[in-house]
Amino acid sequence: MRTLAPILAALCLTACVKTVELSQTIQPSHSIPEKSSERAGVVCSENLLHRVERASQYAVELGEPLCNALVKSVEGTYRSAQRATNPYKGEYPRVVKFDLGSSSLDIERRGGSTRVACSISVVVERFGRDSRRVSSQGVTGNAFVERRDATDVLVKEAVEAALQQVADNASTLLVAGLDGPRVSPPPQR
Fold first, then answer.
1. Which is nearest to 70 in space by CA: 137, 142, 169, 143?
2. Where residue 11 falls among pLDDT bands split at 50, 70, 90?
3. What are 28-59's pLDDT values in tens digits?
4. Which domains, and CATH codes, for the chain?
5. What is the percent of the chain where pLDDT is above 90?
């Protein structure tokens, strides 16, 4: 009986976890007037891709939604961007690698309301054609939501707001580091 109690507790914890699905379409909220004329390879580290954040009885798979948002940041900055696993030397004029620095999710019940806070930090490394690192910097996204609503709705809202900040900050960082010729976007119809 003593060995059965921890097993049942573990089963209840894993069975009672509610996964919150995030939007896969988060992208930078501002457009760049002129992009770099170079192509870029985008690498999302295994650490970033497999990140699952847990709080209370909720789980949020950050990996793919975060990587997709970061790829869109690169697409908005360079002529073209392609996701790559391990690009070889010279395959792309620029390679942008993203790694998860840290992330946290906190859920706190306060009286009749619930407060959800999310924090994400990402390391952004840029490499040249010769595979030498040009720069390494960080971007963050922080958000919190507090109100009377379903907790899963608040978790989704807070995490997506933090992802939006990371995408915006990554885009701004990449634009600030652009060098070389630029191309104007095609005219809008």
1. 169
2. very low
3. 998 877 889 999 999 999 999 999 999 999 99
4. 36-177 (3.40.50.10610)
5. 77
